[in-house]
């Protein structure tokens, strides 16, 4: 009778040189660097948009030089001129004012309306939840482009019309997010404790639920802002945005597209500004989401 023994596989020891730790450290340093670069870019764009009237720039309607002058070292023709001899730099900065203003106003209005609907649906439940859910489903049933076309067809093209259309498209997302967070928070121990202590529903809502909903809404709103800036640029590119001569990044890209081969800066300069702004907002929003997730896990 013979017995046989099988050799067990030896456990693989972790690398002694700390390679994984160094990789995590490098990723952390790169992530922090990207965040600071993104914050710097957004700060510059917001500052330039707010102070555009005080900066040594030509008016976005003023003709300052020869039409279609390429970028050079002269001021204010630093980024060249367009088909009418207007400064591309001035129009990009004033276009930033339009894009950022539309995005910020639309996302703020959507967060307020959607947040209110979401809190009511998640906290009251019952028939208010069903009615609000039906309203949100009805809004989501319309294709976004069709809804935007309908709103711009009924109303004249203006800042108010564009902001209203984009905010309506964003309300369901905020409402669903707030409803889900409210439902989750209403079952937590600290909310039950507040009810047992005799707090009124209004006090529980204002003191216990809403403060813990704000951070997820803010982190989600940053990401929505990036999408709304892209949407505004797309609508302006299609001729449905802010009417000329007021500049917008999408309108500048559209006006430079027919002469892209001979004057590429007319398209690339506003496109790069749009790309870097949206990318920076997404980087900031991603970091905000991570912080929000850590706080939610600690509750």
From TrEMBL:
Keywords from the named record: Cell membrane, Membrane, Transmembrane, Transmembrane helix, Transport
Similarity field: Belongs to the binding-protein-dependent transport system permease family.
Keyword Electron transport: no
Cellular localisation: Cell membrane
One GO cellular component term noted in the UniProt record for this chain: plasma membrane
Major site of localization recorded for this protein: membrane
Pfam family of the protein (one): BPD_transp_1
Superkingdom: Bacteria
Transmembrane segments: 29-52, 98-124, 131-153, 159-178, 209-231, 265-285
Protein name: ABC transporter permease
BP GO annotations: transmembrane transport
Membrane topology term: Multi-pass membrane protein
Organism encoding this protein: Janibacter limosus
Residue span of region Disordered: 1-20
All residue ranges annotated as the ABC transmembrane type-1 domain in the record: 96-285
């Amino acid at each position: 009778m013979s017995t046989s023994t099988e050799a067990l596989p030896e456990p693989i020891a972790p690398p002694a040189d700390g390679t994984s730790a160094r990789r995590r450290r490098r990723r952390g340093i790169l992530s922090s660097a990207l965040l600071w670069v993104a914050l710097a870019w957004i700060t510059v764009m917001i500052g330039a948009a707010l102070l555009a009237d005080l900066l040594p720039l030509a008016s976005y309607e003023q003709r300052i030089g020869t039409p279609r002058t390429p970028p050079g070292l002269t001021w204010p023709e630093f980024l060249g001129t367009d088909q009418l001899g207007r400064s591309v730099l001035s129009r990009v900065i004033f276009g930033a004012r339009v894009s950022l203003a539309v995005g910020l106003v639309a996302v703020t209005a959507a967060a307020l309306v959607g947040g209110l609907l979401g809190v009511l649906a998640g906290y009251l439940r019952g028939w208010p939840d069903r009615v609000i859910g039906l309203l949100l489903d009805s809004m989501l049933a319309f294709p976004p482009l069709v809804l935007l076309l309908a709103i711009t067809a009924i109303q004249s093209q203006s800042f108010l019309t564009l902001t209203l259309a984009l905010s309506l498209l964003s309300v369901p997302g905020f409402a669903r997010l707030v409803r889900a967070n409210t439902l989750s928070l209403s079952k937590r121990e600290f909310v039950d404790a507040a009810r047992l202590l005799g707090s009124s529903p209004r006090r529980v809502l204002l003191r216990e639920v809403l403060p813990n909903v704000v951070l997820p809404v803010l982190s989600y709103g940053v990401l929505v802002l990036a999408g709304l800036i892209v949407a505004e640029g797309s609508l302006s590119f299609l001729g449905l945005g802010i009417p000329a001569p007021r500049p917008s990044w999408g309108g500048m890209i559209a006006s430079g597209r027919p002469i892209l081969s001979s004057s590429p800066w007319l398209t690339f300069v506003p496109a790069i500004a749009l790309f870097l702004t949206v990318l920076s907002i997404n980087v900031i929003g991603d970091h905000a989401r991570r912080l929000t997730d850590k706080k939610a896990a600690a509750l």
